């Protein structure tokens, strides 16, 4: 299926710089829009097969190569007059992210960035791994020019609604971190056996079936025509507020605002990626230096022996990837794993000082954050379920009483005294309630999209012509 599948779905593009271009086709430009898709598929879009070949070639010659993908929204499919039976059938996709606003407890659409408030027809992702953005930005400008091309009558093909720039930041160990300073992107599903080489899976097996992210594309014209549903969310981070709350929580729990453990308990990992739930032999607490973990231990763990006295039930990574916590709450471990997504996000926003080195006054309160992106086969059963039933659900917990929302991305009421922590690591008798932790991540816009198969994109014009002929007869 690799020649028909777009890149970045089964394997992350792994580039350090990206641009995400959101566009809306112009009124009456359907024929030109279909031609654009067809030409873009032939000249720009990277297939899964090409991504694999490019990765192998880069290892030989060291030259970085672009990854380019194109995704369409439900409004985009409607604009292109794609027959209903040829459009992706997910009901949540058809409604779009704006329709899910109340269910997800998202802020009002009127508060989103302007480019996301109206109709979005599609998104182009461009990624490159070079040290600077120079060549990527040149390429993006060329794509913008193509999208803004004028017809002889002076009508533009499309309006570019916004361009989001993503730039990764690494810590001293070369691991990607997010703006709060924590290693990110560790707990990812893997789809190929060769990716498992050398990994210890005694406590957690990340190998997942490709059906986790792939679904048949109804517009496909050849065998093995698959696509994937895509979630994009621009999440702004109040870094200064988060770090101030970390210090307050540390003082509240341990009487020491410099303790790393408080923030680590809220996130579920220390800044270097070490899971809080690991044993005393693996995790040094308070101000004692934390050992650098080996890569296997980063992900080879579960919560079977941790009833919330190491890693709190409400911690971010435990809420979003519960690793068996839902077993006994009406789910199975297999069913829980079927909720997972392939996350492909990257941070945005310029920092003058590295996140792990910034003084408090140098920490931003806005303008930086995460461009959350994920692939899945079912929006309601995966992304929306995780956000609604795990992250935003104060009742999702094996603990009694419940321990509240995810402190990082949870949305909803945040009363004091609900989130609970063990002030002595591993000691249930030391568990106590604390002041609310949360509200430092704000949605600034987003959309549900679909990554179509290549045969649909490569034959967008001829497919439309065939449809018109069928309607005429």
TrEMBL record:
InterPro entries: Dimeric_a/b-barrel, Dyp_peroxidase. SUPFAM superfamilies: Dimeric alpha+beta barrel. The keyword S-adenosyl-L-methionine does not apply. One of its GO terms (cellular component) is cytosol. GO terms for molecular function: heme binding; metal ion binding; peroxidase activity. It comes from the Bacteria. Its cofactor is heme b. Keywords: Heme, Iron, Metal-binding, Oxidoreductase, Peroxidase. The keyword Metal-binding applies. This is Peroxidase. The lineage of its organism: Bacteria, Pseudomonadati, Bacteroidota, Cytophagia, Cytophagales.
């Amino acid at each position: 299926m690799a020649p028909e599948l777009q890149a970045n779905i089964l394997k992350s593009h792994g580039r350090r710089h990206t641009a995400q271009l959101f566009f809306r086709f112009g009124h009456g430009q359907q024929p030109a829009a279909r031609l654009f898709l067809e030409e873009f598929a032939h000249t720009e879009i990277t297939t899964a097969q090409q991504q694999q070949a490019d990765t192998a070639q880069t290892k030989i010659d060291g030259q970085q190569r672009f990854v380019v993908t194109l995704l369409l929204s439900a409004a985009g499919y409607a604009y292109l007059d794609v027959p209903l039976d040829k459009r992706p059938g997910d009901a949540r996709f058809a409604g779009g992210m704006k329709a899910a606003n109340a269910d997800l407890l998202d802020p009002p659409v009127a508060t989103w960035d302007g480019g996301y408030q109206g109709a979005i027809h599609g998104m182009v992702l461009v990624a490159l791994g070079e040290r600077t953005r120079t060549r990527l930005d040149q390429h993006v400008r060329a794509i913008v020019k193509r999208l803004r091309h004028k017809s002889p009558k002076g009508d533009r093909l499309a309006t570019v609604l916004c361009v989001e720039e993503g730039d990764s930041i690494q810590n001293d160990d070369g691991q990607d971190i997010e703006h709060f300073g924590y290693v990110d992107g560790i707990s990812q599903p893997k789809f190929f056996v060769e990716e498992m080489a050398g990994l210890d899976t005694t406590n957690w097996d990340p190998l997942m079936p490709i059906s986790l992210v792939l679904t048949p594309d109804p517009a496909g014209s050849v065998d093995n025509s698959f696509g994937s549903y895509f979630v994009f969310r621009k999440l702004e981070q109040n870094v200064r507020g988060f770090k101030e709350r970390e210090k307050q929580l540390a003082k509240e729990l341990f009487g020491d605002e410099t303790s790393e453990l408080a923030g680590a308990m809220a996130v579920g990992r220390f800044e270097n990626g070490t899971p809080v739930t690991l044993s005393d032999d693996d995790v040094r607490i308070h101000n004692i230096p934390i050992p650098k973990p080996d890569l296997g231990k980063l992900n080879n763990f579960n919560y079977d022996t941790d009833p919330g006295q190491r890693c709190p039930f409400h911690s971010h990574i435990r809420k979003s990837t519960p690793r068996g916590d839902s077993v006994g709450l009406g789910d199975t471990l297999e069913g829980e794993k079927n909720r997972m997504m392939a996350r492909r996000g990257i941070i945005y926003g310029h920092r003058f000082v590295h996140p792990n080195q910034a003084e408090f006054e140098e920490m931003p309160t806005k303008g930086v954050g995460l461009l959350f992106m994920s692939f899945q086969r079912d929006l309601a059963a995966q992304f929306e379920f995780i956000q609604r039933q795990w992250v935003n659900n104060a009742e999702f917990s094996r603990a009694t009483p419940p321990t509240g929302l995810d402190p990082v991305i949870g949305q909803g009421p945040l009363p004091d005294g609900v989130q609970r922590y063990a002030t002595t690591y591993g000691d249930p008798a030391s568990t106590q309630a604390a002041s609310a932790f949360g509200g430092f991540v704000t949605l600034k816009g987003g959309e549900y999209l679909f990554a179509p198969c290549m045969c649909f994109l490569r034959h967008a014009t001829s497919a439309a012509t065939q449809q018109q002929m069928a309607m005429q007869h």
